[in-house]
């Protein structure tokens, strides 16, 4: 399971990336980066309704493995991308949505911190804890 | 009050060099505190039970901490933080009873018998001997007291600092203000960020007084070399601090005043407090859960079976926190989305709500419905400061009023403008008033009739209403009739004013007329005098 939060356009650099398991992490990073394009596409297509949870079901991208990529965009164009293993079929859409909601909540909490400059990488321990607990749930 | 450095209270540090690192002696305002021996020996009580509890906590503070040379030097630790001059006097008074509540993390577990006590024994020798026993490097400055517990003097200091930023103790310090304030402490930004995360439990981007005290305390602790905890210690939780402040522990005047302020303020801001307190429980809950896993926290809870009042606080807080956290476990975290709006709503809710300003003088529709609304709004704004806005839709009325008063549509605009432009339209209004007095009362009566009757004086004209398509609900009808009455009264008042103005104008014009007459007479006499000359 990989979790990634990327910043708003035009930079599209990640504010936070965390993944479990840690091997092949780079591949996950790459996947996340490519999925940003898809997310952007969807945003422009929608026009309105920015706080949207979209499902990027990539299906069999690689012959060896398949995974699902979920996306979520906030009103400030901050994108959350989550990659989960398709073998983990226990994950339902509702759970994904709730996970994104939690992420969004934690992200807004970080925003409330006056010492956090928007655009900085996220180093918040509370955020880390939340993400860890979420990922533990999934795996 | 302070310029470069964040003034920090006398926090008895274990190490001199680390303090020096954080501040410059130049910042000192010449206040040197003599930590009384009393503070040292107090902790001697807790030596025995400290030893075992220190094992689980051996934080990597040794690189930072260095054992003080001796109790004597320890006592004469120069304060390396800048002090506000205004506060140095205050602090000096408290110097003697000022108890340093520092204990290393190793002894976080054992608690705080000395929190409230001020024994005046001097036993540095005892201290030294006991310190020799300890296996910890930080020895002689052991305070069995919890470093995360705020002493009264510290609390007063924090409150004063809060006041310097925000005079209202029940209000917030905004994020930017707090950021500037805490940045002066010269702690690195990530640490400040973490401190903020710990202390702003409701994550609203602002600090209330207990949150501020917690944040300040963490800053001070950090400057004294303590590692920041992962979660907010119990003793720094806002509800704990609030509960602690409410109990009359000391005779400190400031403290009393604060406790007085707090209940009063709490009553006034029950909504905000309840909101905050209940929302705080959620992170508190998680914090408690995490803490429960930690040995030291358990030890903290267990090993405070002491006679001091703060211990009661802790139990009280733990119990209430646990209860509340259980109760609120399922509460959704809606605050983080609407935190600012809640804040704004809370702030707005405290002001006396006034009806929103309404466009009184102009209306887009020519229908008399709007005029009625405008009249109602006029009277409402005038008569009472707090009335619910008029019902948004008056569907029955347009039909009735339109059928009834089509002929008087031109009257309404004039009537409407009269109050605002009495002077300009005085003539027009006069005509209107003169022309329409007989119909006006009847029209008014008709209108009130259509909306139901409230006053007996209008009852004779009930027959008129029956002819009208009175298909209106009674509830808004009665409201409208009363509004209508008020509208009528306002109009009457305005007419009277206009009358007065016109009367004044009339008298002035009469005066001018007299003068002009006189001039005319004068001119005619001159003419008469001159005429015989010309005739000749």
From TrEMBL, chain A:
<keyword id="KW-0931">ER-Golgi transport</keyword>
<dbReference type="GO" id="GO:0005783">
    <property type="term" value="C:endoplasmic reticulum"/>
</dbReference>
<dbReference type="InterPro" id="IPR044760">
    <property type="entry name" value="TRAPPC2L"/>
</dbReference>
<dbReference type="Pfam" id="PF04628">
    <property type="entry name" value="Sedlin_N"/>
</dbReference>
<dbReference type="InterPro" id="IPR011012">
    <property type="entry name" value="Longin-like_dom_sf"/>
</dbReference>
<dbReference type="GO" id="GO:0005794">
    <property type="term" value="C:Golgi apparatus"/>
</dbReference>
<keyword id="KW-0333">Golgi apparatus</keyword>
<keyword id="KW-0963">Cytoplasm</keyword>
<dbReference type="GO" id="GO:0006888">
    <property type="term" value="P:endoplasmic reticulum to Golgi vesicle-mediated transport"/>
</dbReference>
<protein>
    <recommendedName>
        <fullName>Trafficking protein particle complex subunit 2-like protein</fullName>
    </recommendedName>
</protein>
<comment type="similarity">
    <text>Belongs to the TRAPP small subunits family. Sedlin subfamily.</text>
</comment>
<dbReference type="GO" id="GO:0048471">
    <property type="term" value="C:perinuclear region of cytoplasm"/>
</dbReference>
<keyword id="KW-0256">Endoplasmic reticulum</keyword>
<dbReference type="InterPro" id="IPR006722">
    <property type="entry name" value="Sedlin"/>
</dbReference>
<keyword id="KW-0813">Transport</keyword>
TrEMBL record, chain B:
<feature type="coiled-coil region">
    <location>
        <begin position="488"/>
        <end position="526"/>
    </location>
</feature>
<feature type="region of interest" description="Disordered">
    <location>
        <begin position="28"/>
        <end position="119"/>
    </location>
</feature>
<feature type="compositionally biased region" description="Polar residues">
    <location>
        <begin position="449"/>
        <end position="460"/>
    </location>
</feature>
<feature type="domain" description="EH">
    <location>
        <begin position="154"/>
        <end position="239"/>
    </location>
</feature>
<dbReference type="InterPro" id="IPR018247">
    <property type="entry name" value="EF_Hand_1_Ca_BS"/>
</dbReference>
<protein>
    <submittedName>
        <fullName>REPS2 protein</fullName>
    </submittedName>
</protein>
<feature type="compositionally biased region" description="Pro residues">
    <location>
        <begin position="387"/>
        <end position="398"/>
    </location>
</feature>
<keyword id="KW-0175">Coiled coil</keyword>
<feature type="domain" description="EF-hand">
    <location>
        <begin position="187"/>
        <end position="222"/>
    </location>
</feature>
<dbReference type="InterPro" id="IPR000261">
    <property type="entry name" value="EH_dom"/>
</dbReference>
<dbReference type="InterPro" id="IPR011992">
    <property type="entry name" value="EF-hand-dom_pair"/>
</dbReference>
<keyword id="KW-0106">Calcium</keyword>
<dbReference type="GO" id="GO:0005737">
    <property type="term" value="C:cytoplasm"/>
</dbReference>
<feature type="region of interest" description="Disordered">
    <location>
        <begin position="382"/>
        <end position="460"/>
    </location>
</feature>
<dbReference type="GO" id="GO:0005509">
    <property type="term" value="F:calcium ion binding"/>
</dbReference>
<feature type="compositionally biased region" description="Basic and acidic residues">
    <location>
        <begin position="131"/>
        <end position="147"/>
    </location>
</feature>
<feature type="region of interest" description="Disordered">
    <location>
        <begin position="324"/>
        <end position="367"/>
    </location>
</feature>
<feature type="region of interest" description="Disordered">
    <location>
        <begin position="266"/>
        <end position="285"/>
    </location>
</feature>
<dbReference type="InterPro" id="IPR002048">
    <property type="entry name" value="EF_hand_dom"/>
</dbReference>
<keyword id="KW-0479">Metal-binding</keyword>
<dbReference type="GO" id="GO:0016197">
    <property type="term" value="P:endosomal transport"/>
</dbReference>
<feature type="compositionally biased region" description="Basic and acidic residues">
    <location>
        <begin position="39"/>
        <end position="56"/>
    </location>
</feature>
């Amino acid at each position: 399971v990989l979790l990634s939060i990327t910043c708003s356009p035009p930079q599209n650099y990640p504010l936070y990336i965390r993944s479990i398991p840690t091997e092949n992490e780079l591949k996950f990073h790459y996947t996340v980066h490519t999925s940003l394009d898809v997310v952007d596409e969807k945003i422009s297509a929608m026009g309105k309704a920015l706080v949207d949870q979209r499902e990027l079901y990539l299906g069999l991208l690689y012959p060896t493995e398949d995974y699902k990529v979920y996306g979520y965009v906030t009103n400030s164009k901050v994108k959350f991308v989550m990659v989960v293993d398709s073998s983990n079929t226990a994950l339902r859409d509702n759970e994904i949505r709730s996970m994104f909601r939690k992420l969004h909540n934690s992200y807004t909490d970080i925003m409330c911190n006056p010492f956090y400059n928007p655009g900085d990488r996220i180093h918040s321990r509370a955020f880390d804890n939340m993400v860890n607990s979420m990922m533990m749930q999934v795996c | 009050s302070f310029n470069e450095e964040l003034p920090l209270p006398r926090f008895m540090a274990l190490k001199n060099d680390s303090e020096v690192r954080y501040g410059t002696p130049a910042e000192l305002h010449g206040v040197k505190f003599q930590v009384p021996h009393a503070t040292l020996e107090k902790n001697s009580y807790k030596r025995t039970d400290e030893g075992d509890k220190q094992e689980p906590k051996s934080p990597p503070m040794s690189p930072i901490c260095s054992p003080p040379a001796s109790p004597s030097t320890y006592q004469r630790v120069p304060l390396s933080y800048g002090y506000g001059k205004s506060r140095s006097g205050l602090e000096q008074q408290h110097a003697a009873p000022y108890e340093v509540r520092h204990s290393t993390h190793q002894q976080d577990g054992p608690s705080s018998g000395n929190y409230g006590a001020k024994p005046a024994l001097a036993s540095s020798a005892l201290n030294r001997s006991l310190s020799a026993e300890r296996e910890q490097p930080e020895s002689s400055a052991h305070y069995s007291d919890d470093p995360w517990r705020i002493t009264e003097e510290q609390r007063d200091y924090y409150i004063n600092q809060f006041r310097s930023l925000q005079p209202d103790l029940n209000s917030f310090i905004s994020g930017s203000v707090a950021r500037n304030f805490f940045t002066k402490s010269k702690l690195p930004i990530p640490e400040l960020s973490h401190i903020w995360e710990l202390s702003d439990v409701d994550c609203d981007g602002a600090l209330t007084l207990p949150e501020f005290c917690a944040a300040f305390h963490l800053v001070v602790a950090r400057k004294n070399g303590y590692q920041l905890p992962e979660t907010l210690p119990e003793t720094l939780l806002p509800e704990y601090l609030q509960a602690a402040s409410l109990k009359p522990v000391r005779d400190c005047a400031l403290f009393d005043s604060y406790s007085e302020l707090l209940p009063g303020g709490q009553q006034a801001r029950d909504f905000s407090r309840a909101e905050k307190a209940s929302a705080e429980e959620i992170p508190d809950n998680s914090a408690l859960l995490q803490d429960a896993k930690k040995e030291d926290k358990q030890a903290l809870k267990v090993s405070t079976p002491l006679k001091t009042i703060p211990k009661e606080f802790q139990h009280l807080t733990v119990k209430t926190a646990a209860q509340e956290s259980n109760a609120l476990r399922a509460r959704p975290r809606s605050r983080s989305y609407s935190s600012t709006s809640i804040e704004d709503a809370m702030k707005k809710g405290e002001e006396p709500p006034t009806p929103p300003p309404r466009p009184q003088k102009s209306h887009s529709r020519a229908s008399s419905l709007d005029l009625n609304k405008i009249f109602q709004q006029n009277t409402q704004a005038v008569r009472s400061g707090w009335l619910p806005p008029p019902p948004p839709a008056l569907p029955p009325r347009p039909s009735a009023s339109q059928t009834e008063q089509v002929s008087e549509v031109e009257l309404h605009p004039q009537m409407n403008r009269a109050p605002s432009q009495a002077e300009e339209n005085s003539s027009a209004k006069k005509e209107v008033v003169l022309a329409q007095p007989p119909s006006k009362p009847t029209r008014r009566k008709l209108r009130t009739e259509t909306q139901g009757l409230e006053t007996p004086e209008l009852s004779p004209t009930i027959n008129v209403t029956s002819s009208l398509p009175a298909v209106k609900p009674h509830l808004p009808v009665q409201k409208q009739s009363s509004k209508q009455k008020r509208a009528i009264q306002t109009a009457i008042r305005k007419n009277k004013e206009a009358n007065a103005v016109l009367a004044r104008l009339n008298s002035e014009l009469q005066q001018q007329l007299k003068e002009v007459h006189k001039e005319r007479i004068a001119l005619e006499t001159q003419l008469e005098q001159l005429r015989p000359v010309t005739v000749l």
